[in-house]
Specification:
Elements lengths: L4 E3 L5 E3 H15 L16 H11 L3 E4 L5 H13 L4 E6 L14 E6 L5 E2 L1 H14 L8 H5 L10 H25 L1 H11 L7 H13 L3 H10 L2 H4 L2 H13 L3 H15 L3 H20 L3 H21 L4 H13 L6 H18 L5 H13 L3 H13 L5 H19 L5 H14 L1
Parallel strand pairs: 3-4, 4-5
Antiparallel strand pairs: 1-2, 5-6
Length: about 425
């Protein structure tokens, strides 16, 4: 773990000394072990030698992943390479997301106050002590020992196996790309070719998962997530996309539960909150269609709140911000926060496009914001750019759906909306 007070990427400061003294050290003692912290040792010689010895020889180790410190990750990699078990990971919940490569690992969250010191230390320390006691069972927690067959007995012959697996993965990805163009039946046939999903190449499984999304096979996505290897199914990306699939399959309450659990464990992110906002938005529309006006109003507020939380988690990701200002248009009268937020979202989209390599969503967002700003010329210009960047049919369909909401609200207010109607029709034609 880092020592002293260290800054996070957003400027906050974490007091790692306080975390050690009030959470980690008491937990180690409660588990019947002896705490040993590197900077408390006084020894001569090369510091790396002592560090390597501790990581290799100590029976138990705790790694604090908060702030994604590069030294900590190097040391964790070394530990995982030589020790199959008894390495416990912890992180401060809500103080930055963990890098993708470790999101599949089970890490114990704890909470920090605004000053960067731990809160509810008794609960956190007790939970960590329980994890350390459970580690006596010596169950593998190193992903290297869990996933690489025959490790650490890696013979030279294994390099040939590795090359074959790489070629296999590349071939499968090419075939999946062709299957997406052919439709859901072809994608399902590709899944059958993979055999046991729990032992298939993770990259290919993820590509298959997203291929089902591309052909709108929502239930197939849900089923596939249930057959994945547990570490892969536990990743943030899989859980987010599972929430999306459950919602599209008409199982909004299950989707909400998956996403709220993910936020509780990993903290808010623009992607997770954006998908949660879509869940509430769909439920709002369903309630409106049923004439349940009060319920629809409450769900609209929840949708706006989720999208706002996502945008505030990462101002660079305009997607949840666009949806927030769009839904604010649907309130009667329109939400007064829209006027203040709209320029911020427009700026965020503009920065993404100016940064280079914009995609469909960047141009679609610019178009939707231009519609909200009543900028017909800007909307039509962005429409042309968006159509040129469509990758999958569901993309323009989703944008058209949002614009229809704006169209309905403004038509009801008696505004001139024919130009918006034409944009929606163009997007719908592109989706079919």
């Amino acid at each position: 773990m880092p020592f002293g007070r260290k800054p996070t990427g957003d400027g906050r400061v974490v007091d790692f000394d306080a975390i050690y003294e009030h959470v980690i050290k008491p937990a180690v003692v409660a588990a019947g072990l002896e705490p040993l912290r590197a900077d408390e040792e006084i020894a001569g010689g090369v510091i790396h030698k002592a560090m390597f010895e501790r990581l290799i020889l100590c029976e138990y180790a705790i790694a604090d992943l908060t702030t994604a410190n590069a030294n900590v990750f190097y040391e964790l990699g070394l530990r995982h390479a030589v020790r199959s078990s008894a390495t416990q990971l912890i992180f401060a919940e809500g103080w930055g997301q963990l890098p993708f490569d470790v999101t599949l690992l089970r890490a114990l969250p704890y909470r920090l106050g605004p000053d960067g010191t731990p809160t509810d230390v008794a609960t956190a320390s007790a939970a960590l002590a329980g994890k350390l006691r459970a580690a006596r069972q010596a169950l593998p927690d190193s992903p290297v020992f869990q996933m690489v067959e025959g490790f650490p007995d890696i013979q030279r012959l294994k390099t040939d196996v590795f090359r074959e697996r790489v070629r296999y993965a590349e071939d499968m990805k090419a075939r999946l790309a062709a299957a997406r163009r052919a439709g859901v039946g072809a994608v399902a046939a590709m899944e059958a070719d993979l055999g046991d999903i729990g032992h298939a190449d993770a990259a290919v499984v993820i590509d298959l998962f997203l291929s089902y999304r591309a052909v709108k096979a929502w239930q197939a996505m849900v089923d596939l997530a249930g057959r994945m290897a547990p570490p892969l199914a536990a990743t943030v990306m899989v859980r987010e996309q599972l929430g999306l699939a459950l919602n599209r399959a008409g199982r909004g309450e299950e989707a909400e539960a998956v996403l709220l659990t993910l936020i509780a464990e990993r903290g808010a992110s623009s992607e997770t909150c954006g998908i949660l906002g879509r869940v509430y938005k769909d439920r709002c529309e369903t309630a409106s269609q049923r004439g349940e006006t009060s319920l629809a109003r409450g769900l609209l507020e929840k949708a706006i709140g989720a999208y706002l939380k996502g945008f505030e988690a990462d101002w660079r990701d305009a997607y949840p911000g666009v949806n927030a200002v769009t839904l604010m248009e649907l309130k009667e009268p329109p939400d007064p926060r829209q006027g203040a937020l709209l320029p911020v979202v427009i700026y965020a989209v503009g920065r993404r496009i100016a940064a280079g390599q914009p995609d469909y969503w960047d141009y679609a967002s610019r178009m939707e914001l231009a519609v909200l700003a009543r900028d017909q010329a800007g909307a039509e210009e962005a429409l042309a750019d968006a159509l040129a960047h469509v990758r999958e049919a569901w993309e323009p369909e989703t944008t058209a759906r949002n614009l229809r909401l704006i169209l309905a609200a403004r038509t009801q207010r008696g505004e001139q909306t024919e130009w918006i109607r034409q944009i929606v029709a163009t997007l719908e034609n592109r989706a079919h």
